[in-house]
Amino acid sequence: MGALAAGAAAIVGFSVPAAPAVPESTVQNFAATPRQSPVDADYYLADASGHWAAPRCVGDGRSGPRVQPVFVHRKGSSNRYQQFRTVLQRSLSLTTGIFERSSGARRTVRWVHDTSCRPVIWQVGVPAAVSHNLVDLRAYLKDTQPRFRDPDRVYSLWVDATTSPEWSGLGDDRWSATWSSSWGFVWVDAHELVHALGALRPDAPHATGKGHCYDAYDVMCYRDSGPAWRNVIACPAPSAQYRLDCGDDDYFALKPRKGSWLAKNPGANVARSRFLARVASRVLPTEPPPATGVVRDADSVDWQVQPGVRYDVGVTDGDGSVAWLTQDNVTGSVSTWEVPTTSRVFVRAVNDAGYSQRIRARTSVVSATTSG
Fold first, then answer.
1. What's residue 22's pLDDT?
2. Do 233 and 352 reside in the same domain of the chain?
3. What's the distance, Cα to Cα, between the start and end of the chain in Å?
4. Coil, strand or helix: which one is 267?
5. 286: in domain
6. 102-160, pLDDT tens digit by residue?
7. Each residue of 145-195: pLDDT tens digit?
8. Fewer CB atoms < 10 Å away: N or C end of the chain?
């Protein structure tokens, strides 16, 4: 588990019934501009590289039980969807990858998707007063828009607003939400989706009593101050942070062991959820190799394109901040004539499994070096 993922795991949210009541006086200024930017979200997504999987087509993409992704912005404030769009699409691949890599690629999320298998993301504006709490958001959306009353939908919200300092995301009973004011939008959305699908029951073998588990590293396990929490490390592998159910015994197992708690409580097994599809196993991709032949001249940066690989090109300033020149580029070239020659330009390969390392472009040479 990378340091970034470990930090995020420490503060992910509770399910709605377990969320503490927070007096309004203790909550952040809901009208404040959320501090997370698309580049911040991408930073955490890169830490999860190697765990993605491209969403699959399941039926016609509309009928039957489905998970509906929704980008929520505050009315009267800028709708930043276009800025976050690439990050959100990639986060959907991470969520898909978590389910597929946890099931031998035999379970996948039944997203609402288009004819190209791309999940369809709704955009909706809400009053700032209801944007900080899932209970208020759910009530407002159900009251004002009939499309949010479909019993065959799980609504997975990304909320570009400020929430309580007590949580990063909330989820329960077919609704989940993550906020851009905290660690939300990346990885946390998968955690909250699992809550929305019914995990984790308080009588599960390793339940903390607050909707999570304690048998070490997986998507739903962390020290949440629950009354039953214990310090147990059953799954210490770094990749366990991006897998479901350490031990296959609390909330997710394709074939629960005979006589086990999950075998006796099939309704607690998220692997049986109607919002997941049973699919034929497939070979899941690995991360792409780093870009090669990266050269920068007076007005462009160029590199060698590999089949099936896309490329992000960014500029780093002296403080380490990043501005994207292009993402998902397949041409192998992008203009840099407006980029100061003193700025560092890098190229990063991306595919359905994640990112490669950054390769810094050197001016007027035919090679490149790895950038931090």
1. 36
2. no
3. 18
4. helix
5. no
6. 999 999 999 999 999 999 999 999 999 999 999 999 999 999 999 999 999 999 999 99
7. 999 999 999 999 999 999 988 888 999 999 999 999 887 788 899 999 999
8. C
DSSP H helices, the chain, are 3-9, 38-47, 81-101, 134-144, 188-196, 261-264
What backbone phi and psi angles, to 5 degrees, belong to 272? -95, 5
Domain that holds residue 150: 3-278
Q: Are residues 335 and 257 in the same domain?
A: no
Short-list 178, 166, 168, 170, CA closest to 225: 166
Give me the pLDDT at residue 1, please: 27
Longest dimension (CA), the chain: 69
φ and ψ at residue 95, rounded to 5 degrees: -60, -45
Same structural domain, 201 and 315: no
On whether both 250 and 353 belong to a single domain, the answer is: no
Query: In sequence order, what are the residues at sequence separation of 6 or more whose Cβ sits closer than 8 angstroms to the Cβ of residue 318?
Result: none
Query: Are 78 and 42 part of one and the same domain?
Result: yes
pLDDT lower than 70: segments of the chain: 1-29, 364-372
Number of domains in the chain: 2
Q: Is residue 87 part of a domain?
A: yes
What is the crossing angle of helices 81-101 and 38-47, to 10°? 20
CA-to-CA distance for 186 and 240, rounded, in angstroms? Answer: 16
Same domain? 177 vs 318: no
Q: How far apart are CA 280 and CA 203, in angstroms?
A: 32
Enumerate long-range contacts of 76-80, CB under 8 Å, 24 or more apart: 76/128, 77/33, 77/128, 79/123, 79/125, 79/160, 80/38, 80/160
CB atoms within 10 A of CB 195: 27
Cis peptide before 200 (omega within 30 of 0): yes
The pTM is what? 0.90
Distances (CA, A) of 265 to 262, 269, 270, 274: 5, 7, 11, 16
Domain boundary among 245, 278, 311: 278
Q: Which residues pair with 119 in a beta bridge?
A: 113
